[in-house]
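User: Second chain of the day. Same drill as before.
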Amino acid sequence: MRRLVLSDCGDFKTQYAQETSFFPNDVGRLTLGVLLIVWFTIVPAVAGPYVLSIVNLTGIAVIGATGLNLLTGYTGQITMGHGAFMGVGAYTTAILAARAHLPIWVAIPCAGLVTAGVGAFFGIPSLRLKGLYLAIATLAAQFILEYVFLHWDWLTRGTSGFLVPTARIGAWKLAGERPFFLVISVTVVLVTWLNLNLLRTRMGRAFVAIRDNDRAAAAIGIHLFGYKLLAFFLSAFMVGVAGALYAYYLGVVVPGKFTLDLSIDYLAMGIVGGLGTVLGPLYGAAVITVIPEALRTLSQALSSMFPNIATALNALREVVFGAVIVLFLIFEPEGLADWWRVVRAYFKRWPYTY
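Assistant: Same format as last time:
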């Protein structure tokens, strides 16, 4: 006898607006509202400076990983140059803030636009290249921009770098972990919301069509080159904003911060969190940012018993990163976001899971 499988019931949609809404009922809206209130009020009041510093770095990484996810996860354009693009945003912010004395609310959008232009320029090869060949082309962009950061002294000051002045929003001085926590958190919410809405538009559907099959996308009238360049533009804009916040947060911009290792970190965030998902950048950025801190904390805890353990654990950082990426590619190629999807699907019918 065939077993009866019950499907979801109780949510009947009679309008297109209901079909396209983010939340099928008020429970999701209420939950999100409570989470945001707790995040913006209780977390900065309870957490200490060290925890807030990790949260701030994670938030900056979420913004950059969201840009990478838009380009690689949704459009299928593999890139290895996001670390350098983040450097473009950071240097642009430093130049505008230190030399032109522009306020933060002007410098950050300008940094995003400059980075978007650079990203679109290096995205021109995407017309003829894709897959591994496009990755090599963007890797060349990484090395070219690193060379510019290091040797274009009159613009970037070479190895000396830039000291970024303290940002102000009106009379509010951005100094310390808590002010940056609020600014970075608001930016993360805005970028995530914009990314989620973008994917529901004609543009977002075109990106997904190009990722799935670019020839079929061209056959139905999608302008491949235009949309690929637009994906590079939007992705680089988000990474440029992340670089601008990173420059203000650290207070200094030097070439050594934007190497190939940073690009690999962003790619690892996409793999661990889940490419082509909205929440993937949040999960991936949290894991990849916390791993070095966890290794450092472990080395400090064991240093009294094993004096040389710190050197060994620092050397194992790359090994741990590589092992995490390989394990996720083998056992969970869809990333941590797929775990959340499975949990939601289970509780959607719980306790009647039959």
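The two ends are 15 Å apart (CA to CA).

User: Great, on to the next one.
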